Amino acid sequence: MNNDVHIVLAAPQHSMTDHFYKNADADEMLFVHEGSGVLRTQYGVLEFGYGDYLVIPRGTIYKIEFSTTGNRLFIVESFSPIRYPKRYLSRYGQLLEHAPYCERDIRQPKHLETIDQQGDFLIMIKKKGVMYPIHYGHHPFDVIGWDGCEYPFAFSIHDFEPITGRVHQPPPVHQTFEAHNFVVCSFCPRLYDYHPEAIPAPYNHSNIDSDEVLYYVDGDFMSRKHVTRGMITLHPAGIPHGPHPGAVQKSIGAKETKELAVMVDTFHPCRSQKRLWASRIPAIP
Question: Are 53 and 107 spatial neighbours (Cβ–Cβ below 8 Å)?
Answer without folding.
Answer: no
